[in-house]
Amino acid sequence: MDLVVRNGTVVTASGISQTDVGIAGGVVVQIGGSMPEDAPTLDATGCYVMPGGVDVHTHLDSNDFSTRSADDFGTGTIAAACGGTTTVVDFCAQGRGESLADAIAHWDSKAEGKVAIDYGYHMIIVDMNDAVFEELGTLPDRGITSFKIFMAYRGMSMVDDVTLLKSLDQAKRHGALVMVHAENGDAADYLRDKFVAEGNTSPYYHALSRPPRIEAEATARAIALAEIVGTSIYIVHLTCGEALDELMRAKRRGVDALAETCTQYLYLTKDDLDRPNFEGAKYVFTPPARTKEDQELLWDGLANRVFETVSSDHCSWLFKGHKDKGKDDFRKIPNGAPGVEERLMMVWQGVNAGRLTPTEFVDLVATRPAKVFGMFPKKGTIAVGSDADIVIWDPEAEFTITQSEMHNAMDYSSYEGREVRGIPRHVLLRGKQIVRDREYVGTPGEGQFLRRDRYVSRA
Ligand code: DUC
Ligand code: ZN
Ligand code: ZN
Ligand code: ZN
Q: Which post-translational modifications are recorded for this protein (predicted)?
């Protein structure tokens, strides 16, 4: 036995028990029963022992919005680790005119030698043509079993319905899951340009130019197209009651429509975009933050298993140097906010509030995303044979979220000043301790690429 995690309370998606966990060769080899006395020990007294978080939505070393994000695969995955996340699935973004093979090679070069935790890729398609279409079918053989398609951003990445239909069909044929950015891009562009023409250029108008119906319409349409093809679909960053209604209607019809929400939609509102001194720009992400009422509906959706996961959509655009490009025109503010490190702590506040049980928490932040994206049971659980990716969670520790305590390369946290109870204290990656007392003690580059299994459609 290489390590025994002793005296903790093991939480998985199926239950809780006071038991020790034995690890050898990077995997869990024993749960409960008598452990060798002389094995190295990690003491988890007073703590929960949970599977490491699985964040299936990050943008590390991103070049979107014509700038390079602050976090690369080094700082981004160290931050993830310090936040209790041991697996990310990052968006590998095709450049315009680029083949998917070249996009993957580009992403591999970004990750090479830097990654602190295990990682996979989804493929973002921005430029669909016949060759790319054929290439899509080859991605599952490379362990990339999900593609993101945009219904917004005309001229950049937006696709028409035919392209979306064809992509869904191709995904169905090859065992991949299509993830959609569901917003009616033309409607958003129309409102956005109208606001600016009227002289309304502040960050708040970002939220007003992308109202819930823009998201709900596209959500319903994306689901309908999947239904027409007879396949599954995953809605990324679902934010509001109106879109949630469309999702639930589809589920009631028996469609295999899946969705995530993201941490920011549970805590931030559109009023945050109205903060003075251009601070609102920090909260410009797409789709925008909504209302308190929407937050309640999202929490209900989490408790009722309508969502598969809460992901971070971690984007690291600096307040000074990136966001301020849009000082005079909100359209130029790079979209996105950080949160890969804060995610687990913030979602855990739902446990403190009685909205989720610890078991449901584990299911949402680790188990279900691992299942949906073809990584289970290697990732997302504590079971004999699973990778020993483990977070020792101290439910009583109090912590104030502040940027100086974060391990990313950002200059702000979306949750600055929030007091939380419950923190990831120690983290193991395949049995090796990579975080001790919330500090990274691993070796960058030890993260491994995950070839993910194909999606098995329930459609
Ligand atoms: N969609 C994302 O998923 N992230 C950032 C911006 C966007 O449109
Ligand atoms: Zn998106
Ligand atoms: Zn994203
Ligand atoms: Zn630190």
A: Carbamylation allows a single lysine to coordinate two divalent metal cations.
Mean pLDDT for all residues in the chain = 97
Instruction: Tell me if 447 sits within 8 A of 118, measured CB to CB.
Output: yes
Domain tally for the chain? 2
Report the C-alpha gap between 70 and 62 in whole angstroms. 9
pLDDT per residue as tens digits for the range 169-211: 999 999 999 999 999 999 999 999 999 999 999 999 999 999 9
176 lines ligand 1 (CB under 6 A): no
Please tell me whether residues 229 and 247 are part of one structural domain: yes
Q: What are the pLDDT digits (tens) for 413-428?
A: 999 999 999 999 999 9
Ligand 1 atom index nearest CA of 148: 3
- Sign, Cα dihedral of 451, 147, 87, 367: negative
Domain with 384, as residue range(s), is 3-50+378-394+422-440
Q: 122 and 242: one domain? A: yes
* Residue owning tokens 């219904």: 151
**The token pair that represents 60 in the structure block:** 């590390």
Atom of ligand 1 nearest to the CA of 183: 8
Residue nearest to atom 7 of ligand 1 (CA): 286
Task: Establish whether residue 118 lines the binding site of ligand 1, counting it when its CB lies within 6 angstroms of any ligand atom.
Answer: no
Residue 406 falls inside a structural domain: no
Domain presence at residue 457 = no
Residue 87 shares a structural domain with residue 215: yes
Task: Please tell me the residue having the least CA distance from ligand 1 atom 5.
Answer: 336
Q: What is the pTM of this model?
A: 0.98
Please indicate, yes or no, if residue 402 is contained in any of the structural domains: no
236 pocket-lining for ligand 1 (C-beta < 6 Å): yes
* For residue 67, pLDDT beyond 90: no
**Which ligand 1 atom is nearest residue 335's CA?**
6
Q: Does residue 411 belong to any structural domain of this protein? A: no
Q: In angstroms, rounded to a whole number, what is the distance separating the alpha carbons of residues 189 and 210?
A: 9
| Domain identity same for 119 and 29 | no
For the cut 80, the answer to whether the pLDDT of residue 72 exceeds it is yes
Shared-domain flag, residues 26 and 119: no
Ligand approaching nearest to the C-alpha of 64:
1
Interface pTM (ipTM) of the complex?
A: 0.95
Which atom of ligand 1 is found nearest the CA of 336? Answer: 5
Residue 100 vs residues 239, 313, 333, 354, 396: alpha-carbon distances, Å? 29, 22, 28, 44, 46
Residue 235 near ligand 1, beta carbon < 6 Å: no
Rounded Cα–Cα distance for residues 3 and 25 (Å) = 10
> Do 368 and 387 sit in the same domain of this protein?
no
Neighbours of ion ligand 3 (CB under 5 A): 313
Nearest ligand to the CA atom of 441: 4
* 334 C-beta closer than 6 A to ligand 1: no
